[in-house]
Specification:
alpha/beta, Rossmann fold, 6-stranded parallel beta sheet, 38% helix
């Protein structure tokens, strides 16, 4: 296992007003909307999700870094667990022509509105039960998804990432190291089920036998 900074290349460039996030609206109310992972989450207001975020190429630097780090070559298979609308999958395919990309996504809305370039590479399902054979992928990634699971599903999801990988694995989840970061995380998040310190995440990884790389996103 190794700590990798891939998503941090993007995360740290964004400025956030945590207090505005909870003062502008009823946070519980908008969270109830967000956890449906429907149009309001993906293409609605910034207060209920991504704010209509469209593909802008920002994930290309993440794809490039992963391809370099894990030695991805044409013909290899990559799985993104919680692939959203396929932005990272698109960038993987563009950065390494010939690579075989696959996306697992829970949200039917996200699948229906996925990028056309990778839409046919999606399957509907949950991270806790991946519909793929053992040791099928050369790289399995999951970004900002697993913290949205309850602990029992998280355990199964980690085991599933381990099962379907014959090579590298990487996941990114939100965490906190102090009380300020914990409060900022609670202010900012809308769909989290798990609020963990790095030590607690390490415990989860060990319990599930997850041996891949990882990264934590902090709200400083």
């Amino acid at each position: 296992m190794a700590y990798r900074e891939f998503v941090s290349l993007i995360h740290k460039s964004t400025k956030r007003d945590y207090l505005q996030r909870v003062n502008e609206v009823d946070k519980a109310e908008v969270s109830e909307i967000a956890i449906k992972f429907d149009k309001d989450y993906w293409d609605g207001s910034r207060l209920t999700g991504y704010g209509g975020y469209k593909y802008d190429g920002r994930w290309r630097k993440v794809a490039d870094a992963m391809i370099s780090t894990y030695g991805i070559k044409p013909g290899m298979r990559i799985l993104d667990v919680g692939a959203g609308k396929g932005f990272l999958l698109h960038d993987f395919a563009e950065a390494c022509p010939g690579v075989e990309v696959h996306g697992l996504e829970y949200s039917q809305y996200a699948i229906e509105h996925a990028m056309e370039s990778v839409k046919d590479r999606f399957v509907s399902g949950t991270a806790a039960k991946l519909p793929y054979p053992d040791k099928y992928f050369d790289l399995v990634v999951s970004i900002n998804t697993l913290h949205n699971l309850f602990n029992y599903d998280l355990h199964d999801a980690l085991k599933e990432m381990e099962r379907v990988s014959r090579g590298a694995k990487y996941l990114c989840v939100e965490g906190y190291r102090n009380e300020r970061e914990k409060m900022n995380l609670m202010y900012w998040q809308m769909t989290c089920r798990i609020f963990h310190t790095p030590q607690e995440w390490a415990f989860d990884f060990a319990q599930a036998g997850y041996t891949g790389d990882y990264e934590f996103i902090y709200f400083e």
